[in-house]
Queue: 3 jobs
Job 1
Amino acid sequence: MLEKLMSIDRRIVFILVAIAVIIPTLLNVRFPITVSQPTRSVYDFIDELPPDSTILMAFDYGPSSLAELEPMAAAVLRHCFSKNVRVIGMTLLNVGARLGDRVMSQTSAEMGAVDGEDYVFLGFRPGGISVILGMGTAIDSVFSADYRGKPLSEIPMMQDVKNYDHIALVLDLASSGTPSTWIAYINTKYKQQVAAGVTGVMVSELYPFIQSGQLVGLMPGLLGAAEYETLIDTPEKATAGMSVQSFVHLLIFVLVVVGNVAFFIQRRRAQ
Amino acid sequence: MISKKLILFLFLLAVVFGPSCTIAIAQEAPADVDTRWFHTGKIWIFLSVVLFSCAIIFSIYRARGGGDIFIRRIAGLEAVDEAIGRSTEMGRPILYILGLGQVGDVATIASMNILGQVARKTADYETPLRVPCNDPIVLNVVREMVKAAYLDEGRPDAYSEDDIFFVTESQFAYAAAVDGMMVREKPAAVFLQGTFYAESLILAETGNSVGAIQIAGSDSDSQLPFFITACDYTLIGEELYAASAYLSREPMLLGSLKGQDYGKFLIFAGIVLGVILELVGITWVSTFFKEV
Amino acid sequence: MGTLTDLITLLVDFVTSHAQILGIWVAAFFTLCIYSFLYRDNPFYRFAEHLFVGLSVGFGIVISIHQGLIPFAWDPFWEAVTKREFMGLLKLIPIAIGLLFFARLIPKYSWLIRYPIAILIGIGAGRAIPNVMDAFIFRQVHGTLTPFGKIHAGELGFFAIFGAILMLVGVICTLTYFFFSIEHRGVVGRISKVGIIFLMVGFGSAFGNTVMGRVSLLIQRVDFLLSDWLRLI
Amino acid sequence: MRRQVPLILCFLFGIVMMLVEFSPHPVSEGLRAEVIEWDLIIGPFALVIGVVTLVHTHWIRIRRRVEHWQYSYLVFIGMIVMVAFGLPMGPKNGGNELPKWLEWFKWFKGPENEVFVWFFDNVQVPMEATMFSLLAFFIASASYRAFRARTLEATLLLAAAVIVMIGNAPIGDVLWNELSPVGENIPSTARQWILDNPNLSSRRGIILGVSLGVISQSIRIIFGIERSYLGGGD
């Protein structure tokens, strides 16, 4: 019996996981979200900015982490547009260009924000660190035109934004090591405030930078997105997702416990 | 024919003068610009860089000059013999997985060094050593290394090139293929050393389920939790580099390891001293490290 | 011949007017192809996977040319030529060095790619040293010390003081664990044991967050299949 | 020529890039901007290596008829499709004028390069997203079969993982507030404490060590001690 339980086909576990996701999704369950401090710090920072400030959002994620970071991007954009904070979008990842463009144009359409006045999407330039550093000298030395090919000199909101001196916050939405790159190269050299929203995999490793003040705040994966949705009071995909997430977490918790109990019984018998 | 030296000279000239000419012409400094040649606030960072560079270079030269450099015992490495011994007793193969890294990655190089040492031992015991590769270039390098190891041990006859083979360069297909191998061949020992991504978990879980002794090592932070839970021994981060230095005795690796230890010692001292002084209200050390 | 063109026009018309719905079906098909891997490796999975590799490389080529080579290399060069600015032609030097990457195609001269690689690696290494020293060593050490200054100033409560001490112990013990030139015996051994405890808790938290990350991806795919494709929600 | 020049170049660019970081003088700032520009210009050319390697690998697979060689054609098809549709117009074509020879093709007439975007949105994005979502299944199965509290280390890791998992899930707080008489939102508070305290200090230890490693590697590269990037040969 015990041996059988221990050696069940992994495909049975796969089916359990699928059920734990599909049923709550269909039932559309919602739980309230408790907001954590690092997410609240990002929210507060943006909330306290004077109107017409400019922030820079880096969409440094690819399709593989779209699920976690797109809802986060949408929530922050909604907040900025409602507070009249202007947003410059860009990305260090080639796949990020289309994704950033998509979320920016969708959210701005919803919120009635105007391209070129309330936001601009610059797209992608290869070069990573050199792109980051080049923008410190002059943004137009790296991005001569926006994603749609319009020269920066013709974009109203870019007239008084030349480099990091005119940007209140850099928010990096990242699925890889880019937050520490932004920290190392602009927080240090240009004293630029940096915040990050990252995938679950990376959350833990960025905590030292919050305590040292190198990160203003940190949004942890889909949970961070749901927290932000709670803060701006518009529960959307992330809040729904986190509720479904709860069931899978419970399932995995049960699996770990059952696996370990079986393991200990087996070990005791062996002794 | 123009001499090579002349080309070289012109090339370097262009490289050096290209940027400088542009700047000389482009520069017209406004009045409020900082015209210091050296940012005095950064002097401590500069001096630390110089000091640390000296420590590294000095240690490497000392190691090259045959100076003895001590490296501590690393728990996972002692299990290597145990794993090989067990495979030999049970007459089952050893599976060595180098991860998805490229040949230039530090972790892959470290892993290849360790593989070389494992190969020396399997050559003696005639235990089959199976190495499924994911990168065609890594494959070639590994074949050379293992062949050399068998030759060194005087057992070129025991080396079989077919045991070191290319599977596929795609992540999940590689994981699936290696999974299949584990289930069919039931290796007694599995080594997972190198750069790993999401497939780490699939490999470690299957290795665990076939009852192999698993020794893992990686500098991929986010994959370490999976190795620690599913493997018997895990080399964590820098331990992997240390292990390869320990086994290969390569002076450059030993030397930089030692130099980095000097650096760690200074940080350690800085923290301890800083905390003590902070507590009595003296802020020298924290001012030293503060933002400039 | 005329009918063939008509046919193509008709087909193109149909596809353009149904591009969105077609897209959802194609996306759903590939999603299911990849999930079929959960049962076992099979031709559908291999089909999707290889196509994916090709598409993403193709995407990378297009983006690098249009958003890298054209704005950084071609545009300034062309501007210099049309405006007859001599200094702009200096851009030809890095362009020429970049072109050396093509030496990879000619085995006899393939060593030439070492030039651009050496420059890129040199730039990377040079700028990393001061910035890493500043951001990841100086600032991190400073972050470790600041709570103790606050303790001296009496700004911290009991719980915060406990946290500060715990942090100090954690940093010191973890750092000790990564000392390689000292034998881990006696006091050092015990300190590094504590370091392992901290490391494990840290990795555990990463594990927990990773679970959340991976499951989020699944939730999004299921949401796509159920709502966009099957329209069940 | 083959080894010396690259080493000299690497040294020159490395040392210049390092020193200008310490110098706010306009000339150094200009030099820095110029070197960054060189990096931006040279960098994209590196693409050649990746493409050549991929084409070469799959070409060999087809020629040698290794197992599943037929699929390698798909790699080429995918690549050619993207390049053929993307290259003439780029990923977007807002202000650009349409080249004459493309005008017959309706798809290029929209505000965006629609074919290219269509392939990206409906083939590439879903496949990559799905590929990684497979891991949710694997992580569940591994939790059941491999995550055992076999040693003290593994036990600690599992305990921290479980606390973080329950704290992350909103249902954790909901259940706790329903069932337990003491405290409110304890699961998410506990999770936050773990991340803020033990996690922070262990990560800081790792960061300090790794950063020294990065600096030491950079020093070795600049001074030509580490030459593995040159590859083999002379």
Job 2
Amino acid sequence: MTPSTLLHSVLREPQRMERLTAEQWNALIRVARVEMLMGTIGMLSTGMHVPDKARLLLDEAAAIASVRQNAARYEVQRMVEALTPTGMPVILMKGSAYLMADLPPCPGRNIGDLDIMVPFDRLSEAEAALKRHGWQSIKAKGTYDDSYYREWMHELPPLAHETRGGVIDLHHTILPRTARLTPRPERMLANAIPTNCGAYIMAPAEMLLHSATHLAYDGDLQGGARNLWDIDRLVRHFAEQPDFWDDLKSAATAHELTSPLARALRLSHRLYGTPSPAALRGKPDLIDRLALRKLRGHDRYGAPTTPISNFILFLRGHWLRMPLPMLTRHLLTKWRARRAEARQAGRENDQ
Amino acid sequence: MRLRIGPAIFDIRSPFGGAIASLRHLYRDYPQGMPDEIYDFTVAALPTTPWRRWFRPSIRLQADFTVEEAVPVALRHALLAFEMGVNMQMALGYRRDIILHAASAARDDRAVVIVGDSGSGKSTLSALLSWSAGWRHCGDELALIGLAGDYSLTPYPRPIGLKNQSIPVMRERVSADRFGPRLEGTMKGTVQHLLPPVDAIQAMDRPARPALIVSPHFTAGASPEIRRMTQSEAYLRLSVASTNQLTLGEPGFDALIRLIRSVPAYDITYGTSEEGLQLVEKLWGDVE
Amino acid sequence: MTDQNSDQEGMMQPKEPEVNARRRVLKLGAVAVPAIATLTPSMAMATGGGVGGANISILACQVPIPDRIDEDGEVVPAHKNLHYDGHQAYYYENGKRGKKKYVFNAPYQGHYSGQEIKDGYLNNRYIHDAQFKAHVEYLQKMRNSGTGGAGISCLMSITNSSYKT
Amino acid sequence: MALYVPVEAVRYEKLDDLSLVFHRLSGETHILSPEMEAIYEAIPAGGADAEQILFRLEAVHGLVEAEEGDPASALCLRLDQLTELGIVRHIS
């Protein structure tokens, strides 16, 4: 068992935590920190007999997650206050949706930036309303990054609150405009479900599709163990509803997202034993193998052990999101930035 | 290697064997080894790039908690890189206590907390308290204040990082074998570590209860002065001098309120180290 | 340790003598005068996070500066044409008849270290170094806009590190 | 009628000089000036409109003055600042 698979097995079967050696704990803690799942296993360990030191570290992580969740709730409140006067529907995405709807991925989950989606034609209106309430674009206008976002991405440059520092990612769809698939945000808006905080969440099938797409397209599967854990929790929860699998299938077809969904279901099945109809999962491919290698490839210090797989996944992530000439330009820009960094490191050591 | 400082165990590794050896030596009085313990944080000092292991060697840190903007450190300053890594883990990852950027020392298990910016004279004052005035050294840089009811202070007695002109001040008073290597040309000028007295290291598991808070202002030639802080002033100073208090939620708020309500806080200004010591002793006499 | 409501209610309906004891004119200050100071959790990272790294990390952190900053600290848009007085670049703010503004490149590594900025402030480097002055203007703008971004937490930690009441 | 209501999820602590309000949800700590403290304390748990709050302030302090404009509008601006920080709610 690798340190990563130890983490996966503890998530599947938390009782294992009562039988770990100190060496296993050390590896587990490292990988859980890297994968941002320490708070999650902290919550899963509630009431279990674990060594004192493990207890301290787990409780600490769970406590921090809960403080951050409170702050995230507050940011949702303030965001809703800012956008309510516009009358536009606002959909909470990912972490904040799980939080406000109290869904099973939530306990101990670290919730950072606030992701929301509004109709495309009301994007600038939403941006203006947020700016009136203290949020500001982080990237300076006119730089490569800003125009890149506005021209090609599925979201605006991040907005940070001027005093609190909380960040909002304002989306109009779930995939970059450069991606080869084009899901239909208007269907997501039409199906959205109101919550009592004043914002909406996606309908179950679409919430899962978004999570799956995010995983399959977020290039290098960074944080994949956590995203797959979200998927596992959501699937097990939603599958209790009678028509869920049918809804999911038709939603995937409508949004042209059957293939990212299949990949997410395959991977979460492999990692966490997530149940799903075999027909929806489809057949494993080379990318699955690379992804699993990466997901399982941490050493006992949490450092990656599979650089080649990771590099191929990195290239693939960018390829999926951009047409080739753009990809070249993008990677070149990144490469130049790194080269400048390296030069500077050299200078410093010459001193 | 594994190393325990106060309540935290660090797993430290590096392909640079010499760096590890000098770390082992500097921390020779601290618990090391502990292969069967669950440790708190891992810190690795790795070559910036693979060839930097041999060619103009320089170090980057890989650890449980890191900041993005850290710059590489030359191998000859490896001790500082480790120190930076260890401090970073405490500042960013340790949440069981309030972490104040402060020195501290105890007498009869009651503690003075010395809070101030670097350059304010905090390290020197804390070195003098423990090496000249018989106080138990509890830390020169981070003070851990408990979240539970009694706001007790957990010692974190790392070697004292002396800088520039404070080095000769202490060399006069302490034998040479308690000093680490002299590190020239660091970002902070010349740095040399001074090991706390062995007793203080051995007593690092014994908590102390804060009884006095001082904020030193060392200005050459200044005449000694004491000014009592209001409670809200003390709250503000300590809150912004903490790496984590604002992120701890209500328990952090509670603990700090209790601390500043029960423990008096003072600004002290002085022109020589001796005067600084005298002011602390005077205030200590008042709280006793 | 009062939860809002409980003690407060008691305080608001005091017996008559207490009211008299507290009677003094309440003066509401000008609006521009801040009446509340807020400590927000993100400040812990900005001020304290750096502190924990032995202050080394504060001074070692990097504050990136974009290329092409004008003398007022504004980023010069990429489409603006530059002219030269010898080696000194400039552009016209609003066409040929507009204000002539000098333009400065980023520092040679593309960023300052915390130490460089701190030293620069202490030595009044901005008085004689027009490039540094422009960069300081830019940093002030970044800082005042309160937005995050690479290096801003570093900058905050340098310029906020001595809190004065 | 627009009411100002103190948010319940806060901790209010009076120190020897100023007062602190800790907001449980946001994790923010607000340090109130004496003037803000007086206003905050004058807002009853059940809520009140600006006029009633001014009346309550006068009951404690006798006289309420403003450096700029009339006390009522100065008070409204301060109440809005409290609302902006989320420690008071404004219900219409």
Job 3
Amino acid sequence: MTWIPEAASNLAGKVDGVLWLITLMSAVFFVLITVLLVYFSIKYRRRSDDDETPYITGSEPLEIIWTVIPSILLIVIFIYAYVVYKDMRTPPKDAVDINVLGKQWVWEFNYYNGKKTLNELYLKQNAPVRMVMRADDVIHSFFVPQFRVKQDLLPGRYTQLWFTPIKVGTFDLFCAEYCGTGHSKMRAKVIVLSPEAYDIWENGAQAGEGSAVAGLTPVELGEKLYKEKGCNACHSLDGTVVVGPSFKGIIGRSEEFTDGSSHTADENYIRQSILEPQSQVVKGFPPVMPSFKGILSDDDISALIAYMKTLN
Amino acid sequence: MANNTIAEHVYVPFLEEKKGILSWLTTTDHKKIGILYLVSVSFFFLIAGTIALLMRFELLTPEADFVSPHVYNVLFTLHGSIMVFFFIVPGLAASFGNFLIPLMIGAPDVAFPKLNIGSYWLYILGTIILLFALLKPADTGWTFYTPYSANTDTDVVLMTFGVFVLGFSSILTGLNFIVTIHKMRAPGMTWHRLPLFIWASYATAILQLLATPVVGITLLLLIAERTLGVGFFDPAKGGDPVLFQNFFWFYSHPAVYIMIIPAMGVISEIIPVFARKPIFGYKAIAYSSLGIAFISFLVWAHHMFTSGISEVAATIFSFLTFLVAIPTAIKVFNWTATLYKGSIQLQSPMLYALGFIFLFTIGGLTGLFLGALAADIHLHDTYFVVAHMHYVMIGGTVMGFFGALHFWYPKWFGKMFNETVAKVAWFLIFVGFNVTFFPQFFLGVEGMPRRYATYPQEFKSLMSLSTYGSWILGVGILIMTVNLIAALFNGEKAPQNPYGSLSLEWQVPSPPPHENFHEIPHVTDWTYGYGKKS
Amino acid sequence: MDHSHGHQMDPGEAYSTSKLGMWLFLGTEIMLFGGLFAAYAIFRSKYPEMFLEQHRELNREMGAINTCILIFSSMTMAIGVTAIQRGKQKLTSIMLLITILCGFAFAGVKYVEYGAKFSHHIYPDTSIFFSLYFMLTGLHMLHVFIGIAILSTMLVLTMKGKFNQKYSTPVELGGLYWHLVDLIWIYLFPLLYLIG
Amino acid sequence: MLMILTAITVSVSYVDVGIFNIIVAMSVASVKATLVALFFMHLKFEDRITWAFAIFPLVLLFLLIGMTILDTFTRIFPV
């Protein structure tokens, strides 16, 4: 097992299952081909220039066999890998969100309680987390080998991944997508703490050092923006319809749009609606919302989304 | 051309038909154009290989003590771009394709000889543009991913424009070959009598023709993004950086097959000759080339499972990726079965062919890890990918390229090389290659990301081992190069058919006359009629 | 055209060989535009309002006029090809001349259109829609110019009497190219001007 | 013959000004394109190989468009 790094997340064991399955199947084929190559090369080596060889041009049964058997094995691998992948892509309901921002060449982590850390990611053992990630400039990629997770961070869009750290310890976080001169130095430490130690860290002194408005958690900031930027003029909090749809329970609500399509209101939809309100207008509402491009920063939008989540 | 009729029965090797550099650059003889390509791509192979040695030297230790990270980034960009666009895409296809296709199908030349030399001029134009781009070389990696490539202040525009021009060279070559194979076959040379190298070249040419323009327009859009402010890939303007990746891989995955399918064709030619056996499962190998070519258009997003594409798309692409493994596996089994009950002679071309099967099998099987969704999430953009693609590209294509060089060398240049030295070089290349790249699989599984100028201490022992291996590999290639060049000057005169092949190109003198065949041959049997019919 | 060295390809074979080559080239051209068409499809579905809004900036009448010009030129081109196949060199020259003039007329209209856009401060970086508009029509314009260059060469060669009913391959290949330019415009026109 | 066809295509292109319907506009364009290909470009009289190489790029083009669209519009961000 030494060739696979320590399995430090709940997903790691599952991924290792796939790795082992493919390794075993590959090994069988590799050994088969190698043995045959060597054996044939020795057994049928040319002994004289007048060697007679048979005229064999093929064998249908044999060819069918070595088409069908690999096909079946390949489908098995595909399905197994797909099942694990589906698992890796589906965060549980109780996963806690951490906002991750990648920029040349720093990792920034924003926690639910307003804490923010640079190049150090603190996690609680056995607590599922979801990374809600975006990039500031170019594409980066969040990769922790011991967790077997990897996901690119894109500018202008959120991506996500989730896992549950199961082992206390410190792990390397690499940027896996080439991002420029400092790419190979864009590494962070993932520090998984026991639940007790994590609680101490969480309540520790170094809170809120750089949240967009100092001292506010994203939710508090979101609430402030909701009032100050005028969202409250059109969007209610209690489900009543003013001008636009209410924010109550908006995250995860399935919306039908004027063009007949429908979509679940997720982070990307909210973001898009704030920046390009006319791109998707909910059915039954007038297309009157102004764009908040340049008014709300990315951090502000993230905070608003965090606030909206509390309204469910 | 009137004097040709007079000189009809006087044998003049094509190499001595006309002399002088200008006559070479303006020739329309496919064999000479093949040599032009051969020399050019080999030159770029050695350049890019040297760059690779520099990179490995830097990676001997975890810190950036030999070159700075920026220089390292430039080096791997140049290594990748030159290897891919200047060596391996035109490599076998344009050099051996040019030399062999007309000879193998019994034609005097390709369908459009003038277009053929025109393609080569475009290739040269591309290299000149690259030279200018070297004034401020790009540091984007050969994949030119946006938005990085749109923002970096290195000269991405010239570099991509050079690639764009090379793309057109590749397209026109492919076009020429397709038409040649359709229209120029000698009487009796039916599709099912064609040598498998022709089938492979045909499949390759289709990929060149129809995939390359997409990367052309993609790079053009990237240039427009940098110069005109067009924003298709710029999220700030409503564009989508992942779209660039979709477009890029629509070409660049088929490009992998542009690189490997001709090598597969070479192997299918070498093995029957040195085993004195008909190729096993001719039709399966022939049609699997076409099958691979077609499916390869539909697997591109397996380079993008972690890039933020949709799960539905990832699943479909993963499935199609597994489909492409099937025809590949069939080929490997068929080659191995051809050896059964043969009379196997382990001369240098055959050693390269067997080396190909061995290494390509590893390359192919490790591809399964990268096609499988969950496994790829862990392995993507690590050294596992680096090792895999080098097993396919060096273990596959370059082994095929070297095999082809040794196999057709007597025919092309009319000289024999030193066989003992060739075997020693093969051994060093084989060992050096494995020492260089096998440890990288383990590095990848352990999580070492690619394109890292510096790396954590824990990877040091395997990284150093890999660097030592690269030295052995370098020495092997150097010996091979010297051996082949030396043979030009003091090699023995090659007989017409030293290896006893039945293929048409061996039925004319070595080197072939300018017009290939005094009389267009009438073909009555397939190419692989070795062995005793019972 | 010396297609081969010692062995001359028979003319019929040479003709069909060249035509196949041209068709393959047209396939490449389609894929070259294909990337832009794919980008169009994606961004149009992503931002339908933007496309609806901004396509009104385009001058539909000019687009329609240009469509007519190109279709007409395609017809004269086809007549020209048929004429040379029957050995009517004079008719061919006239038809080629008309086709080339149509090409210039098309370019002229396009010039006026671009000028109008620039005077309204609309540039390729104005929006995704105009990026597409300028890239698609710009690439197409480039093809029109290449086409004009090819056809002008054909015109000169025809007037010199190089072509007749036995040998007219280059004219036909030039014609195929010109028809493709027309064909692509047939799609560009509705995509950009009509349905935005 | 060609004149009539041209007249038809031109008139159709006038008629469809004002019809804001992607399907109608694209089918009209496709009919026009098919006519140009079949008659102006003599595709009707070409052999099977030419047909294959005329149609195959279109198939690939649809696959390129189809698969990129599929990716772009099935990106889900579960909440």
